[in-house]
Amino acid sequence: MTKGGQFKTVIVAALAALVWMGGKADAAQCGNTAAGFEAWKAQFADEAKARGVSASAIAALRGTNYSTATISADRGQKSFHLSLDQFLAKRGGSVIASRGRALKQSDASLFASIQQRYGVPPGPLLAIWGMETGFGSVHGNQNALSAIATLAYDCRRSAYFTDQLYAALTLIDRGVLSASSRGSMHGEIGQTQFLPKTILEYGTGNLDNAANALSSTANFLKAHGWQAGAGYQPGEANFAAIQAWNAAQVYQRAIALIGQQIDGK
Fold it and tell me: Where in the numbering of this chain does the Transglycosylase SLT domain appear (predicted)?
């Protein structure tokens, strides 16, 4: 490369660095305590407005509060570090399997319809449903938007939950969620606990309705490579789809095992 070319390269790199630094300066800054949340929220609201988010959705965002309960739950997921046997005992794996077998029989037509459409058998769907909300008995009582905004502000997984927050604002625009919607500690919604971006991509109707939630879960699994008729235990073709549902290895193995116990395979 000539000296002139080298000089041009340096200039271009310097300009790119300035642009990047300017973007970083403009972006809402994450934090690890409640102290900076209000300032972050105001800056994020300005960014959202610039991206075309509606006034009503921004008003909902401005009404959120920092959730110490969400942060505590996010830092305290100790059960994911248990052995499989310990995890199943803690989460009531045998009870989920027993209730799942009963529901498979009582709602046979629903599960047959879902399996015909998505290729997913009842076992893993019932295992997820039971594990996530005790078959709809515990949906969570946190303000979903506040939980998601708190995690978007928190530095630990800011980028991931920033995407979730923009998805939540989109769902508010569409009337799917409201500023008062309740969910679990991380802002998950419905019978099988979908985050906002997952609702946008795979949701099929009101997820507080069991049939819709189960169909949406099957839709998610199919979209992540589920093959009708293939196995779903570790090492089998469909286990990767279960892995896409939750990143915790012990959770993945528990879903596969409970599903197998429900399906009787």
Answer: 37-232
Residues 4 and 98 in one domain: no
> Domain total for the chain?
2
pLDDT per position as a tens digit, 186-240: 999 999 999 999 999 999 999 999 999 999 999 999 999 999 999 999 999 999 9
Does residue 188 share a domain with residue 128? yes
pLDDT digits (tens, 9 = 90+) for 39-66: 999 999 999 999 999 999 999 999 999 9
- 126 contacts 103 by C-beta, under 8 angstroms: yes
